[in-house]
């Protein structure tokens, strides 16, 4: 067994908070399908303490509509798409809601979009789920992706436009299935989005879960992954880029409830502009019976300009000594002036040097995503974000978008 | 023929306790094709001189001038200095994660020349230069300096010197930490650059060892932020025998 806490790269500069002891164990956190069990938060609760609850308020309501977004699915030929009525037995298999927005979303939806990869089918193309904001009426939506046993597929969920969306995404990865899910939050400026991703991972199944957040006013994604049988594997990758006044929060929970499963979490973010705020919380629970667990989580943040704030809280709870490996690393740093100097001393102008460094910061992560169309789009989005910060540096007003 | 001229250079370094004066009036003139060795004990200010010439923001020039063929170098930004023909092989090269050596070299070459190098020709040139310096071709795809050994970092610095063809190269302790084989490979690289481009070299070193491979025309002994003594190659031999003690005592009693 190895237990590592790698802080060698942590260059804490006040924006870094680390190892904050949560109020009670993650194992004791209330989860429920019942609204009455999880009240509207005040903002002082452990899971809401970093969040702008006032801006999220509309999504706490019991009364959420369904017309704020339009959902369009373009499925691979092997993949089945249906609409399920509330109460369908195929819903609710990936765990219970764990906070107020999640339980409100669960209770408010009338129907759900179901994407199913039939047993042993290998999808020949990416399945794309487009979620377009069409009005700013607070809305609930529910998507369930089921990868039946030994199937393989890639599903990309793409959020654009403006909406107040409270969303559930259930991912059921049955025995031996390999599922890649990419959720892109590319919202327009005013969007507020809470999204509870809940994944259940079966025997020898593998989930690659990718979250990409660029746009929106407030985006709060809470991916929960639970292993239901031995031999499961989850790889969680995240990339975010926050501008002035944006709040982007990613709270992950990996529940090692059974033996011999593996989890890898890698999230990286860049921040620029006044009051840009990102929050990353990575809770990993290794339960007493989860012998042979292998887990590692990493979060790195690159603060490009003054006035931005990154909170990063890795949290590992281990209830058994019989594990293969468990570790985490978290670092938040400012732009490294020595890197800039090195590149500029080779004739590279400051703007290009900064671009190289930021692209380099994300390069490996983007490679890891492994879905070509998503990778290309990400590179373009990072480029667009950099245009904004470069104009801050050079004093030229950014182009109006 | 180019000239790099340093006159009465005073430099302070930014520290937590405020500005700390390090260089106290350095005078030095280097012409194309010349090799000047700067030798001195640790802490005498050799790297400060190198960093100040390259324009590192931590080092503030409080008085004096630096000109390159009459042009005011101190007025130039870091990248402008490099494009004007100054090159600094750093004592501690910086890691740049996620930026491949190939991409870095091409980007820098494009910036320095003001146009992208012809693809085919550039590829060959890089490959050849890497072979000469015994740098495995796999390094082209690795991140700049990341996970490189000390010797690999130094060879990567000299690779750049050969490819970018500067008018003046400042080599800051390029020899330190190298074993004999690596020292020979690196020295050959510097000598190739000298032969093919007539580059003027400012060779900063703590030891005389590298001077067996790279022959200096002038030797300057650097003590306490300025040049304490100057001479030809014979001065290096004297230092080899006597060390820096003579200068240190003199400094202490001055
Ligand atoms: N960034 C810095 N902060 C504080 N002191 C520095 C810094 N850089 C150099 N110095 C001090 O300046 C003096 C000269 O250092 P340096 O130029 O590195 O010498 P050398 O290269 O000859 O060993 C030393 O006393 C060193 O401690
Ligand atoms: Mg030095």
TrEMBL record, chain A:
Span list, region Disordered: 1-28
Protein name (record): Fe-S cluster assembly protein SufD
One Pfam family named in its UniProt record: SUFBD_core
Record InterPro entries: Fe-S_cluster_assembly_SufBD, SUF_FeS_clus_asmbl_SufBD_core, SUF_FeS_clus_asmbl_SufBD_sf, SUF_FeS_clus_asmbl_SufD
Entry's family note: Belongs to the iron-sulfur cluster assembly SufBD family.
Residues covered by the SUF system FeS cluster assembly SufBD core domain: 136-361
Compositionally skewed regions (Basic and acidic residues) per UniProt: 1-10
UniProtKB/TrEMBL annotation, chain B:
Stretches of the chain forming a coiled coil according to its record: none
Keywords of the record: ATP-binding, Nucleotide-binding
InterPro entries noted in UniProt: AAA+_ATPase, ABC_transporter-like_ATP-bd, FeS-cluster_ATPase_SufC, P-loop_NTPase
Residues in ABC transporter domain copies: 4-249
Cross-referenced Pfam families: ABC_tran
Top-level taxon: Bacteria
Record-stated family: Belongs to the ABC transporter superfamily. Ycf16 family.
Name under which the protein is recorded: Fe-S cluster assembly ATPase SufC
Lineage per the UniProt record: Bacteria, Bacillati, Actinomycetota, Actinomycetes, Micrococcales
Gene coding for it: sufC
